[in-house]
């Protein structure tokens, strides 16, 4: 089964090379890579040239914005299974084969979410496979873990360009959850398969001011998605309680960095729930 991998990238050179290295050694060779390049300095030109003889690569240019870049990549997809690897993730040699086998054996499923680990040395807990619903997707559908049929993307449409990194709005994440929720609304079936793992290092530092700001921005995105999809009040309250419990746990463990971290996450979630449609970063700064 053919796969199309849409990798959007900005500001990185070494990390995309690691992903490409992992693609060269895939046991399943029926795939193509679309690189959506948001750089303006040509930094990836040599990398693309070096790997073009080993991988089927389409190299596109796009203006900044993760959702915007993914939409540009989707416009070049036309078959099979679609995936959205980050430019700093990498695949095990059998990952594409495992994903292809899943969709071959499970024709009734439109989408698949897999596991994520920080490295090959990590040992994520392998839980049973799970049918996903709008109540069980939370925390389980980061974009690098998503694979879905091209036919499903035609029904879902484009990523919401108001959500995600580089959107220019308050909502620095949530585009992946929003996409899966819209898919579920179309009647599509999704399964989570924790036995398949993609690797992605945790790059956010708790002691980093920028890291805390990023967590708050990501959490605003989560709050915005909860509001956009009019999740039941009990679901929203449950999400807020979970954040409060994480804050309490950090205090009990005398983990002050964790306390500050989780507090930023809670504040961001509340801001996202209360934010208005198309509210930009500039509009917040003016208040």
UniProtKB/TrEMBL annotation:
<dbReference type="InterPro" id="IPR050834">
    <property type="entry name" value="Glycosyltransf_2"/>
</dbReference>
<feature type="domain" description="Glycosyltransferase 2-like">
    <location>
        <begin position="5"/>
        <end position="113"/>
    </location>
</feature>
<dbReference type="Pfam" id="PF00535">
    <property type="entry name" value="Glycos_transf_2"/>
</dbReference>
<protein>
    <recommendedName>
        <fullName>Glycosyltransferase 2-like domain-containing protein</fullName>
    </recommendedName>
</protein>
<dbReference type="InterPro" id="IPR029044">
    <property type="entry name" value="Nucleotide-diphossugar_trans"/>
</dbReference>
<dbReference type="InterPro" id="IPR001173">
    <property type="entry name" value="Glyco_trans_2-like"/>
</dbReference>
């Amino acid at each position: 089964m053919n796969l199309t991998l849409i990798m959007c990238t900005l500001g990185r050179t070494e990390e995309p090379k690691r992903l490409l290295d992992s693609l060269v050694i895939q046991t399943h060779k029926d795939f193509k890579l679309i690189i959506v390049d948001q750089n303006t300095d040509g930094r990836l030109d040599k990398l693309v040239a070096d790997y073009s003889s080993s991988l089927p690569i389409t190299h596109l240019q796009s203006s900044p914005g993760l959702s915007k870049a993914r939409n540009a990549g989707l416009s070049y997809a036309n078959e099979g299974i679609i995936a959205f690897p980050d430019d700093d993730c990498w695949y095990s040699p059998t990952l594409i084969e495992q994903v292809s086998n899943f969709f071959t054996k499970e024709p009734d499923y439109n989408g698949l979410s897999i596991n994520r680990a920080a490295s090959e040395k990590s040992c994520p807990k392998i839980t049973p496979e799970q049918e996903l619903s709008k109540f069980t997707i939370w925390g389980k559908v980061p974009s690098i873990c998503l694979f879905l049929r091209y036919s499903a993307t035609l029904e879902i449409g484009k990523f919401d360009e108001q959500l995600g990194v580089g959107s220019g709005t308050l909502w620095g994440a949530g585009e992946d959850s929003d996409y899966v929720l819209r898919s579920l609304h179309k009647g599509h079936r999704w399964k989570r398969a924790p036995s398949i793992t993609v690797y992605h290092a945790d790059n956010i530092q708790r002691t980093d001011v920028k890291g805390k700001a990023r967590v708050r921005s990501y959490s605003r995105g989560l709050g915005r998605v909860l509001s956009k999809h009019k999740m039941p009040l009990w679901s929203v309250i449950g999400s807020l309680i979970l954040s409060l419990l994480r804050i309490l746990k950090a205090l009990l463990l005398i983990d002050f960095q964790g306390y500050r971290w989780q507090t930023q996450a809670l504040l961001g979630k509340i801001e996202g729930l209360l934010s208005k449609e198309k509210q930009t970063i500039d509009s917040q700064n003016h208040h």
